[in-house]
Amino acid sequence: MYPADCKYTKDHEWIKVEGDTGKVGITDFAQKQLGDIVFVELPEVGRALKLGESFGTVESVKAVSELYSPVAGIVTAVNGALKDKPEAVNADPHGSWMIEIRPSNAADLGALLDVAAYTELVK
Question: What does pTM read for this prediction?
Answer without folding.
Answer: 0.96
